[in-house]
Design a protein that fits this description.
The complex is a heterodimer. By secondary structure, chain A is an alpha/beta fold. Chain A has three domains: 156 residues, Probable tRNA modification gtpase trme, domain 1 (Gyrase A, domain 2), CATH 3.30.1360; 116 residues, tRNA modification GTPase MnmE domain 2 (Four Helix Bundle (Hemerythrin (Met), subunit A), Up-down Bundle); 168 residues, P-loop containing nucleotide triphosphate hydrolases (Rossmann fold). Helices cover 47% and strands 16% of the residues of chain A. In chain A, the strands form two sheets. Chain A has a seven-stranded mixed beta sheet with strand order 3-4-5-6-2-1-7. In chain A, α6 packs across α15 and α7 runs antiparallel to α13. The longest helix of chain A is centred in the middle third of the chain and has 26 residues. By secondary structure, chain B is α+β, with helices and mostly antiparallel strands. Among the domains of chain B are: 142 residues, Elongation Factor Tu (Ef-tu), domain 3, CATH 2.40.30; 94 residues, tRNA uridine 5-carboxymethylaminomethyl modification enzyme MnmG/GidA (Arc Repressor Mutant, subunit A, Orthogonal Bundle), CATH 1.10.10.1800; 57 residues, DNA polymerase, domain 1, CATH 1.10.150. The two termini of chain B are 46 Å apart. Classes of the chains: A alpha/beta, B alpha+beta.
């Protein structure tokens, strides 16, 4: 039997294939701690996304279709995991589209991270049963299994809706509903002015602050999603600072054992040293890095670079300085870097003023007000102040310290929220670019529609109801 | 008229021959989304656009700053001439016989197919298809305070017999309500206290075929004023006299067309409401008071209108009233507007639950075309939601149904960026040509236009404008950033502050093109990103529309469908997956389940 080409397929199959532009992604191994996890991509961009997130070890070997290749999953140059990847060109695949399968280490965290990466690169999280549906429609699954496929989709849909409903009963549900309401109210204002131009004079521009607020609220929900992942999978903490301020000593002090080699000579640590540290309910993935300075030593410089990259990817940065000597240019440089990642990337940071066993010349209070981040005086060698540092970390990550108790934990929610945010950004951009209000409304409609996927809404007349309940119109 | 032009022999019955194309309410055509309908009617070969172009007394293009898809053309009509012109047009149509009579019964043969009608004077007209356009006449009654008149609009005779006949055919009937404001003696208003509104110069026509020189005429101004606290006080004190609130009215009114008493109750915090004062015609002595429809008793109406600034000495010429009428549940119809269970019987306009002249005209045209197609044994011509506002209108009426008079709104059209009033000809004229209402010559002109547009878009998307002092000076003058390297002409057009026309001096390879072609090129290039996005959605929707759902499916027997979806699908019985996807309560997963079920069944 020849494979079904798009042309040969009938309307039925065509009608339910994802939109031309959609590439779908999903974890296709059961959840839990398996030895291996598979993330599957299907659609026109499957190969592009796979190539962007996967770097084969042996670049020279040509990528043969259907052959597994070994390499690394990378995110902006950071290696996340080892993986085996195979690319399967259309049409002889499970879904008849281009497909990529990424085999990575099992366990929720790894697989999820790969999936997240794929979504960030433009894939859409597959709907419940979507792969199975595609496979069935293109004849990959026997017709006798139709009933089974239908009940799988039905059940997954029911389950998805039910778990959505469960999650939505609480704070998150209220938040999403209120965000939806806000979007609808802006859209209704635009629409009523379009449908009743003589009665309402209104420009979307005037509601820009409101839209920025809504976008911020969605962003916060997405962030809380990231935050909750962090609680489950460990907080990445990176120790940085110029050479020889005692970073490795601090690592050892925090772990309570000699993990890193410590020496008088600066530049001892050349690569990242990492370990795990349980801290109350929290799990800290602690990483020590090479000291940051301009160096000619090739290996050391690689270590420095990796350290900076790790800091960029960390949830928490511990910046170590030597409190017994005045801050110099190298300290300033590190400080600039730390300040930048705090402001630009919203990282958390603590400054550890080390060597408190020696006479202190750095003014901690002054430093604290200058940096706007917590400063803790420690002595890594004398094991003093280490408990205070740990307390400070616990405090930063305690749920109480977040001004927001909503935790988005569902991957689908994060996917939907991300798409809603993109649509809102597009609306704001339309306003900034001076596009007519019609286009702003179009983007808002898309954002609203996205959020409806969480609340389980289907096609409806919400907008029109809203227009007529809010505005007084008519001849 | 459409059916006669398509070669059928047609008899048209009207309650009153003088009420053909009568506008019993507002004296205007078009407006937001309704203007789109008029353009679409024109593209299909209907008459409304041509008729208003002949008889308007003021015309304006609204929403010009809000995007090309929502431009809204609206014209004040000379009511008397609008009606007279239409009657003239009708009289010139071959095969069309116009007759005054009230129809009281529909003849149905043994295979439950419509076979003719019976008049109140026992006249019989046999036909292979019957189209009902009962407007607001069906079992109508007009209410004004405590007074109830069993008349149709404007004191005309109502049609009392037909509802029973429909009932006998098993057709579900609903009761809707609408209303109209009073008319005021034109000479009794002090216009110095009112804001004046002039028409556009030059006027943009509704019809794609109207020439500029036929539009030249003196336009007549409209006026704007506002209600105030004393207006509201009078209304509040007399609410118990309103049949709306005393419980006399049984019909369901529309939220978007509230009476003034409704407005002050539902929006009690509003200090004033806008009122438009519009002439009913060039020679008419009456003004239409838009925004103040009412069913209050006579004395309250008189007092209420006189509280408006400039209306201190206003004299009412006709009282406002509410009107109740029978209509049918649109969900009994298919997209050709034929009753699903009475073959050959069509209905169009208010009888299907819509309101508005344009909505009625659009349905009338489709029903007329399809009645003729049925007689000629040809498949119906239907319009999809992705092809036109007419498609949205009919799909909403027949799949969603409506529990209030349905008005067209741009917000109802999910693909509105593609359904613009400026491209109605490109979207629908082909169907008009297929129906036989558009001549071959006219259709070929359209093809030439479309080819010119496509060719020019291709050129603009590849033509590079080199950097230079002249272009940069021009860009700076329009607060646009300078160009350093060569730039695509299309990229410049996409800048919000620039347009295709503005860039003509720098486009050395441009050939002289008709303005209508240039306009299309500008819109398509400028908003390419958004248009592309919506085109993809339409493509997906069209694919799902091509997957037909047999009418005999028992949705309750399909495992995997959610209960709500089973109920909705069983009631509505959508014709295809596209229609099913627009039903509230049917989720994407339900559609997947349906598709798989269909495939298994087919095998």
């Amino acid at each position: 039997m020849s494979p079904p080409t798009a042309k040969a397929m009938n309307h039925l199959e065509m009608s339910l294939l994802p939109l031309n532009s959609d590439t779908i992604a999903a974890i296709s191994t059961p959840p839990g701690r398996g030895g291996i996890g598979i993330v599957r991509l299907s659609g026109p961009d499957a190969f592009r996304i796979a190539r962007e997130i996967f770097k084969p070890k042996n670049r020279a070997s040509s990528a043969k279709p259907f052959k597994l290749r070994y390499g690394h999953i990378v995110d902006d140059g950071n290696i996340l995991d080892e993986a085996l990847v195979s690319l399967m060109p259309a049409p002889k695949t499970y879904t008849t589209q281009n497909m990529a399968e990424i085999n990575c280490h099992g366990g929720n965290a790894c697989v999820r991270r790969v999936l997240e990466l794929a979504i960030r690169r433009g894939a859409r999280l597959a709907l419940p049963g979507e792969f199975t549906k595609l496979a069935f429609l293109c004849g990959r699954i026997d017709l006798s299994q139709a009933e089974a496929v239908m009940s799988v989709i039905g059940a997954e849909n029911d389950f998805a809706l039910k778990s959505a409903a469960d999650q939505l009963s609480g704070t998150l549900g209220n938040k999403i509903r209120s965000v939806k309401e806000e979007i609808l109210s802006v859209q209704a204002a635009i629409e009523v002015a379009i449908d009743y131009p003589e009665e309402f004079d209104f420009a979307a521009r005037s509601l820009k602050p409101k839209l920025i607020g809504v976008s911020g609220a969605i962003d916060k929900m997405i962030q809380s999603g990231v935050f909750s992942n962090m609680l489950a999978e460990g907080i990445n903490m990176v120790i940085i600072g110029k050479p020889n301020v005692g970073k490795s000593s601090l690592l050892n002090a925090m772990l309570g054992r000699d993990r890193a080699i410590v020496a008088e000579q600066s530049g001892t640590t050349r690569d990242i040293v990492s370990d795990r540290l349980p801290l109350g309910d929290l799990l800290i993935n602690i990483m020590d890095t090479a000291g940051i300075r301009e160096t000619c030593d090739a290996i050391e410089s690689m270590g420095v670079e990796r350290g900076l990259l790790a800091a960029g990817d960390a949830h928490l940065i511990i910046w170590v300085i030597d409190g017994s000597s005045q801050m110099d240019d190298e300290d300033e440089r590190v400080m600039e870097f730390v300040k930048k990642v705090i402001v630009d990337n919203g990282k958390l940071a603590i400054c550890a003023v080390n060597k408190k066993d020696l006479p202190t010349v750095v003014n901690t209070r002054h430093l604290r007000s200058r940096l706007g981040m917590p400063c803790v005086r420690v002595s890594a060698l004398a094991n003093e102040g280490v408990d205070e540092l740990k307390e400070e970390i616990t405090r930063l990550f305690s749920v109480d310290n977040r001004d927001d108790d909503t935790l988005v934990t569902n991957m689908r929610h994060i996917d939907v929220l991300t798409r809603a945010k993109q649509a809102l950004q597009s609306a704001l951009q339309a306003i900034d670019n001076g596009l007519p209000d019609d286009f702003v409304s179009l983007d808002l409609g898309e954002a609203y529609h996205c959020l409806g996927e969480i609340t389980g809404d289907t096609a409806g007349d919400d907008l029109i109801y809203r227009i007529f309940s809010t505005f007084c119109v008519g001849k | 008229m459409a059916a006669a032009r398509m070669g059928c022999s047609v008899i048209m019955f009207a309650m009153h021959l003088d009420s053909i194309a009568l506008m019993p309410c507002n004296p205007n055509i078009g407006g937001s989304s309704k203007g789109h309908l008029v353009r679409e009617i024109d593209a299909l070969g209907g008459e409304m656009a041509k008729n208003i172009d002949k008889t308007f007394i003021q015309s304006r293009m609204l929403n010009k700053s809000k995007g090309p898809a929502v431009y809204s053309l609206r014209a004040q009509a000379d009511k008397r001439r609008y009606s007279a012109e239409m009657l003239n047009t009708l009289r010139r149509v071959d095969n069309l016989h116009i007759r005054q009579a009230e129809i009281v019964d529909i003849i149905v043969n043994e295979s439950k197919r419509a076979a003719g009608v019976v008049t109140s004077t026992s006249g019989v007209a046999r036909a292979r298809a019957v189209v009902l356009c009962t407007g607001t006449y069906l079992k109508a009654r007009c209410l004004c305070g405590d007074t109830i008149d069993k008349t149709g609009p404007n004191g005309l005779k109502s049609a009392m017999g037909l509802s029973e006949s429909l009932d006998r055919l098993g057709i579900r009937i609903k009761r809707f309500k609408t209303g109209t404001p009073a008319r005021i003696d034109r000479r009794s208003i002090d216009y110095t206290q009112l804001e004046i509104q002039h028409g556009d110069v030059p006027v943009i026509p509704f019809s794609f075929d109207t020439r500029q020189e036929d539009l030249r005429r003196e336009q007549i101004p409209c006026y704007v004023t506002y209600t105030n606290e004393s207006t509201h006080a009078i209304l509040r004190e007399n609410l118990h006299h309103s049949p709306m609130y005393s419980g006399v009215i049984e019909g369901v009114g529309a939220r978007y067309c509230p009476s003034i008493e409704d407005k002050i109750v539902r929006f009690a915090d509003r200090e004033r409401h806008q009122v438009f004062v519009e002439p009913e015609g060039e020679d008419s002595g009456e003004m239409y008071i838009s925004g103040m429809s009412t069913s209050m008793p006579e004395d309250v109406q008189e007092a209420m209108y006189r509280t408006l600034p400039g209306f201190e000495k206003a004299r009412v010429t006709r009282l406002g009233y509410a009107i109740e009428y029978d209509c049918v549940d649109g969900m009994q119809l298919d997209c050709s507007l034929m009753f699903k269970h009475v073959s050959g019987l069509f209905s169009a306009g208010q009888i299907n639950g819509s309101s508005g002249y344009e909505e009625a005209a659009a349905q009338g045209l489709i029903a007329g075309i399809n009645a003729a197609r049925l007689c000629q044994n040809k498949p119906p011509i239907t319009i999809s939601r992705s092809e036109g506002y007419i498609g949205v209108l009919i799909d909403d009426l027949v799949t969603k149904g409506t529990n209030e008079p349905y008005r067209m709104l741009t917000s109802r059209a999910e693909y509105r960026l593609l359904l613009r009033q400026d491209n109605a000809d490109q979207r629908l004229m082909k169907k008009g040509y297929e129906a036989g209402l558009i001549s071959r010559k006219r259709y070929e002109q359209l093809i030439t236009k479309i080819e010119a547009i496509e060719k020019e878009i291709d050129r603009v998307e590849t033509h590079v404008i080199p950097p230079g002092d002249k272009i940069n000076r021009f860009l700076e003058e329009h607060s646009s950033s300078r160009v350093i390297t060569g730039v695509l002409l299309a990229e410049l057009i996409r800048r919000p502050e620039l347009s295709y026309d503005m860039l003509a001096p720098f486009d050395t390879k441009r050939s002289a093109l008709p303005a209508e072609v240039a306009e299309q090129v500008n819109i398509c290039v400028k908003y390419r990103g958004y248009i592309l996005r919506q085109s993809l959605q339409v493509e997906q929707f069209k694919r799902s529309e091509n997957t037909l759902l047999p009418i005999d499916i028992d949705y309750f027997s399909i495992n995997g469908l959610r209960i709500e979806a089973r109920q909705k699908l069983n009631t509505i019985k959508p014709l295809n997956l596209g229609m099913a996807s627009k039903i509230a309560g049917v989720s994407p997963a339900d559609l997947s389940v349906l598709a798989i079920w269909l495939k298994a069944r087919r095998a």
